[in-house]
Amino acid sequence: MRKIHIAAIIGTRPEAIKLVPIILAARERSEQFHIKVVRTGQHRELVDQLMEEFGLQADVDLNVMQPNQDPIHVLIEGVRGLSTFVIREKPDWVLVQGDTMTTVAGALAGFYNHTRVGHVEAGLRTGDRSRPFPEEVNRSLAARLADVHFAPTEQARDNLLREGIACADILVTGNTVVDALLQALARKPVATECSAYILVTVHRRENHGVALHHICEGLVALLERHSDVHAIIPMHPHPSVRDVLMARVGRHPRIVLTEPLGYTEFIGTLNGAAMVLTDSGGVQEECAVLGKPMLILRENSERPEALDADTTFLVGTNSRRILEFGSRLLNWPLTNRENAPLANVFGDGNASTRILDALLARTFAGDGRQIIVANPKPSRILRVGPDK
User: Fold this and answer.
1) Catalytic annotation present for 252
2) Any bridge partners for residue 35, and if so which?
3) Gap between the Cα atoms of 148 and 266, Å rounded
4) For domain 4-175+347-363, is the CATH number 3.40.50.2000?
5) Phi-psi bin for 174: left (phi > 0), alpha (psi -120 to 50), beta?
6) Is 5 an annotated catalytic residue?
7) For 256-304, what is the HEC assignment?
8) Is the fold of 4-175+347-363 the same as that of 190-338?
């Protein structure tokens, strides 16, 4: 049996985090898979940092990054460069992840060049085309182009079915972020030395400008009410985020602004936090695995599974709601916060294996519909508490 050739397309840090477990798993099965890592360069420093941490190098780097680049530039140059790669290398599968411009570029390059496309983390929806923008439309476009859809949850599968995607083309795998998180925890990451702190991550385009000012206002009010609590904010490099954070909270005595953290270091910091404020989808999933109380700084979420607990609130960017619900969580006894019954529905750490098995089955069985692995419900896993 010949090896299956896979092109794993990476543009942003979240894509890298969630594709690295598949890349590493494929390389461990080198008798079955030959996988090449193709970077568009949509994010440069953040992906460089993560690839170095995992000892990975890209086989191809399109280097589409330009000063003040916009989404259209990334899409055009991504499709151009990825099409050239696909035509030259003729992989069996183009593997894309998530909802970025790189995701759409990879799916288009595969589709237009008659190469099968696998979409990792398929089926997430908010139902609002403008929130998140442009991610909501990007993942819908990817669904129209993909040959197989790796849905992380049953809810994501149901979303795809409602849109007319054939049941046989959807596999519920769990989310590969759980694979990555458990691998990071196995390296025993060290938490910060702060006694009690809130971890804050913010980067989404709809939260730039006035919305970010409101988030800062709510955070400062929360710290004023809780004088024993600090905040740690790893800053996204985008000037619209970084400049506002430095101007609004950079001098606060109990707010620590840091450069972006390596993934293992970030997981250690997340694991030690008393509470998390975030607009990140991946962090919502990581909080669910770790059982972390969380405020979601968005008006809606494509991960409704994370909202099925008393320790998670969708607060948007309203400073009053940040103060109100943040105080509610911080006022809980510490033992309650650490043992909050936040059920995890995002997987059991074996999503990468399921994805590779499905690619193997489909490659050697025509369209694969007769032998594709049955949709397993992701197993629940035990919540992992902070190191004592």
Assistant:
1) no
2) 6
3) 32
4) yes
5) left
6) no
7) EEECCCCHHHHHHHHHHCCEEEECCHHHHHHHHHHCCCEEECCCCCCCH
8) yes
Task: Report which DSSP code applies to 171.
Answer: E
Instruction: Let me know if 135 is a catalytic residue.
Output: yes
Task: Indicate the pTM of the whole model.
Answer: 0.89
Pairing outcome for strands 294-296 and 275-278:
parallel
Catalytic: which of 5, 205, 252, 383? 205
For 190-338, which CATH class?
alpha beta
Where exactly are the structural domains of the chain?
Answer: 4-175+347-363, 190-338
Residue whose C-alpha is closest to residue 30's, from 4, 8, 55, 9: 4
Of 236, 254, 298, 354, catalytic: 236
Catalytic residue among 99, 169, 217, 265: 99
Q: What is the torsional sign of CA 368, 370, 371, 372?
A: positive
The verdict on whether 121 is a catalytic residue reads: yes
**Contact criterion met (CB below 8 Å) for 151 and 122:** yes
Note the pLDDT tens digit of each residue in 207-259. Answer: 899 999 999 999 999 999 999 999 999 999 888 999 999 999 999 999 999 99
Amino acid at 387: D
- With contact defined as beta carbons under 8 Å apart, do 75 and 134 qualify? no
pLDDT in tens, 284-332: 999 988 889 999 999 999 999 888 767 899 999 999 999 999 999 998 7
Structure tokens at 207: 């939260």
Active site annotation includes 114 = no
- Integer-rounded Cα Rg, in Å, for the chain is 20
